[in-house]
């Protein structure tokens, strides 16, 4: 199986994976009274009973150790008007003004998000060059907003199809 990996060019693989439209999240946590955040689209629901979700964090991301230390995290599912927030936490922007956070279930969360999911760390698994963190959900919030989407290297908005 590993030999087949080398036959697939990295850029093509990234482009294929990037063609899958996803929502955009910012993962947040707090360690030693310092808030940390990172834009991510590798997020999914795992189980309804118990309520579990998963996030995938690259081995070179600073957030990896922050989640291991905090043993809890929040997933802020971004709304369509939060593109700047996504860019700030992905390192595409360096805004001079500080982001403001609210607190929910003892975790820093972003105001204006479409949804919030707070978790305590359930388990973690190393898979290739990423760690998959499984979170046991401790709280959820939902607003009536449109989601921010990402596909093929661009931010997108959801549009209803007629028919």
Brief summary of the model shown:
The protein is an alpha+beta fold and 163 residues long. The chain has helices spanning 2-7, 10-18, 63-70, 83-89; strands at residues 22-23, 25-31, 34-40, 43-47, 52-58, 72-77, 101-104, 107-110, 115-127, 130-142, 148-151, 154-157. The chain contains four helices and twelve strands, in the order H-H-E-E-E-E-E-H-E-H-E-E-E-E-E-E.
Characterise the protein shown here:
The chain is α+β, with helices and mostly antiparallel strands. The chain has a single domain, classed as Roll (Pnp Oxidase, Chain A). Helix content is about 20%, strand content about 45%. It has helices at about 1-5, 10-20, 65-70, 85-90, and strands at about 20-25, 25-30, 35-40, 45, 50-60, 70-75, 100-105, 105-110, 115-125, 130-140, 150, 155. The strands form three sheets. It has a seven-stranded antiparallel β-sheet, sandwiched between helices. Strand 11 and strand 12 (about 155) form a beta hairpin. The mean pLDDT is about 90.
